[in-house]
Amino acid sequence: MESETLELKKSTAQLKPAVISIVAILNKHQEGKLYFGVKDDGTVVGQEIGNDTLRTISQAISAYIEPKVYPVIRQVTFEGKSCIEVEFQGNEVPYFAYGRAYIRTSDEDKPLSVKELENLILRKNKDQLKWDSSICREASLEDISEEKVRSFVKEAGKEYKGLLHISLTCRTIQVISSGGLTIEQIKTEMVS
Questions:
Q1: Measured between alpha carbons, how far is residue 80 from residues 28, 83, 84, 178 in Å?
Q2: What does the pLDDT average to over 74-99?
Q3: According to the model, what pLDDT value does residue 88 have?
Q4: Could you say which of 85, 101, 124 is where a domain stops?
């Protein structure tokens, strides 16, 4: 009955592994559900729910998961028995439980190795790590090598119109005055 996005716990006595499961699922799928009062095989056993049970679950999730997630925690009834549903989602991967990152594989929670964690972070930030789409706020037209520009334009099969043409066009589209010029914008301008 368990899956990559569904975790079942017999009771809240398994709260620590439940928190780990939430993190593992978030790191792989960014959303999932967890039920207390249901065995791994799907057998509904019910969960005793006291005045503070839902609050205790919420506090454990808040205290032991970073970055923070705010799940929907509610009492539900299956086969006439009270259970607890925890519905969660989050896009701030990687998530950590008790200081460690985990990933969901089938119905298991595996600790991430340093290399796996590094790859997860790189995948998350791949767009921000592309240098040619980054703005260099300190750059000016004087920082551009005219010889390299001429070579690039020639390689593109276009007529070189000079750095002054590039500067005027960039100012017209307010690239320079807006605080930066990206390499992609320079390339586009040079061959247009």
A1: 33, 9, 13, 63
A2: 97
A3: 98
A4: 124
